[in-house]
């Protein structure tokens, strides 16, 4: 089976009133989240957008013309960025009266990542959302043999304050050229933009061998989770 590499870009609102069950767009068993590109007329509420190379209205998955048929792993690296640039263009047309106006946090999350929302909300409430800030699991770019580049691993989830994203978003594909992977590209862009980066060990870039109750209820996110893993984790934590 060819993996579709769908990516989820989620937008978390100021009131922090969100309910999130982890979906998985590679398998019909998983529940995919809201697949509607928001407009500036939306109320101040959490929005989650699933973006892939093909649209699937039944599961709430959206796409864009530039993404259609782009199924490979490296091509999939552009999905979140293309979505965000699309929304940025919408903001310019609407004179900033858009989806970004009432948003505090922007999150980029993989489809095979489980998010522990209560723990996430605890951490975000303790963070100063008025400052340019990026939160996640910091790695070094060993894949490119560069130990000088530090970036947040995309698989564990990358969280940005609106202030940080307003700095970085206009630079994507411009002052910040794409560099093979989206998380590495963002890492380089955060560096040249002098945005503060925070490392939290509770964002797990790699799935542990044993998914215990203590682990599941205390970590914020776990990457490389299968549908069965997510269902088991939900069962264990309830």
TrEMBL record:
<dbReference type="GO" id="GO:0016020">
    <property type="term" value="C:membrane"/>
</dbReference>
<feature type="domain" description="Fringe-like glycosyltransferase">
    <location>
        <begin position="78"/>
        <end position="228"/>
    </location>
</feature>
<dbReference type="InterPro" id="IPR003378">
    <property type="entry name" value="Fringe-like_glycosylTrfase"/>
</dbReference>
<keyword id="KW-0472">Membrane</keyword>
<dbReference type="GO" id="GO:0016757">
    <property type="term" value="F:glycosyltransferase activity"/>
</dbReference>
<dbReference type="Pfam" id="PF02434">
    <property type="entry name" value="Fringe"/>
</dbReference>
<keyword id="KW-0808">Transferase</keyword>
<keyword id="KW-0328">Glycosyltransferase</keyword>
<keyword id="KW-0735">Signal-anchor</keyword>
<keyword id="KW-0812">Transmembrane</keyword>
<protein>
    <recommendedName>
        <fullName>Fringe-like glycosyltransferase domain-containing protein</fullName>
    </recommendedName>
</protein>
<keyword id="KW-1133">Transmembrane helix</keyword>
């Amino acid at each position: 089976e060819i993996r579709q590499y769908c990516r989820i870009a989620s937008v978390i609102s100021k009131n922090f009133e969100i309910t999130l069950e982890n979906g998985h767009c590679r398998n019909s068993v998983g529940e995919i989240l809201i697949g509607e590109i928001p407009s500036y007329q939306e109320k101040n509420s959490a929005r989650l957008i699933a973006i892939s190379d093909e649209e699937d209205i039944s599961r709430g998955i959206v796409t864009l013309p530039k993404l259609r048929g782009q199924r490979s792993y490296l091509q999939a690296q552009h999905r979140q960025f293309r979505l965000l640039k699309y929304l940025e263009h919408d903001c310019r047309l609407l004179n900033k009266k858009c989806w970004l106006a009432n948003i505090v946090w922007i999150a980029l999350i993989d489809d095979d990542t489980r998010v522990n929302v209560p723990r996430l909300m605890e951490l975000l409430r303790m963070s100063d959302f008025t400052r340019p800030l990026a939160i996640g699991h910091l790695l070094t770019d060993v894949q490119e043999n560069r130990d000088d580049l530090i970036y947040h691993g995309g698989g564990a989830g990358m969280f940005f304050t609106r202030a940080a994203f307003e700095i970085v978003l206009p630079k994507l594909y411009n002052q910040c050229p794409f560099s093979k992977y989206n998380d590495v590209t963002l890492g380089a862009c955060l560096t040249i933009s002098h945005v503060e980066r925070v490392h939290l060990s509770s964002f797990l870039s790699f799935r542990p061998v044993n998914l215990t109750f203590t682990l599941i209820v205390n970590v914020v996110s776990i990457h490389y989770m299968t549908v069965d893993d997510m269902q088991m984790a939900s069962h264990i934590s309830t």
